[in-house]
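Lab channel / #folding
Pinned by the channel admin:
"Please post every new chain as: sequence first, then the structure tokens as a reply. Keep commentary short and put observations after the output so the thread stays searchable."

First post following the new format, from NK:
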Amino acid sequence: MFRRKITDALTEWKVSGMCRRKAAVVKGLRQVGKTVAVREFARRNYDNVVYIDFKKTTSARYAFDGDMDVDRIVLRLTAVLSDAEFVPGHTVIVFDEVQECARARFSIKAFVEDGRYDVIATGSLLGIRGYNRKDRDVPVGFEHTLHMFPMDFDEFLWAKGVPEQTIGYVKECFAQRKTVDEPVHSAMMSHFYEYMCVGGMPSVVATFVGRNDLNAVRAEQRDLIEQYRDDFGKYLDGEGNEVTDVEMLAHINQVFDSIPSQLSKENKKFQYSLLSKNARGKTYSAAIQWLADYGLVNRSYNLSSLDLPLNGNRDDSMFKVYTADTGLLMSMLDRGAYSKILSGEHNIYKGAVFENVISDVLSKNRVKLYYYRRDSGLEIDFISSQDGKVCLLEVKSQTGNTKSAKTVLNDKERYHVDLCYKLGNGNVGFTGRILSLPMYMAPLVAEGLSDE
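Reply from TO:
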């Protein structure tokens, strides 16, 4: 089993005593490792674990029919789960794939108020229409939401067995703004290029670590995408039945399949015209929203100005769409893309893959995505804020041009920006107000950015 950061979040939930006031609800895209991580945490921290997979054990759903009496629910669950043992004060109940049983999620309030058992729930479709019904299914005030993503770069390094001493040394170099020793720098760049190719889906990482075979990695990535396609267009109707909107399904597939071509343009703004000749936002915006709610894509919005708060200046009509896992994007490109990335070729698909991985890193740190583009050609890849001030993030090769960033930095009267992070394959270095960093330090930058 891989080491995952969600374990630390669950530990804090339990140790802090929040488990007595709220259930932990772990949300995330399918196949990111929620079930494995939660079950392992439960096994290590509780004497008794009652595990219910509502997707597989459909007979357990009937236990939650009727009123929310805890004793009655427990009695019914013991009739269905032969190995279930409910010991007050020593038991955690795991509701896996809780979106499949809305009444089970509604019962969370009763279990928390009862206080005898802790509850952890996981859900993969909780952002989709019908799975998050605030009229009766969501116990407001009784859930502590934890978001789980595909493995981040730290988790990838742990999976590869990179020594903590090496990781600590890189963090020290970042904090002190000092050059990384060349052997370490070279090794870390190689690890990051591998991460871009493999991504963070646990089954893909396991394939890579176990076999060191990118053909096998690509096959696993494409299998995952096909599994996701089976969910496209799903929602719950008013009766709680899972149905598929056939028209929505077609639109979602069109949007998702267009992402590589959208990102390969010089101007990576999402263009509906690439979907079909007469495509309009009114037709396809719901499909993009579905993919975002599902957790498979991230959107970056253009800003009308660089003033804080950034969210108040976003233009909802102009945005880019990135995949939430860069490895999945790689599997949608031609096979030669892997070798180009491993060799550090930044211009592949006009830098789209490198932009995508930075959007990936920022999103996993809960940093909202913005960019800045003007008709004059001025464009900054990512905009964020740090310590109450706007900062720029540019994704470039070692000698890449930062003309737009310099234009913004030099016009203090108009933009009020003092710092730009330039992420590429070079080592640490300052040039004026531009801090050049190797791309493997992007997660460290993200940790210091605001989530506004």
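NK: Residues 246-263 form the longest helix (18 residues).
TO: also worth noting, The CA atoms of residues 166 and 184 lie 8 Å apart.
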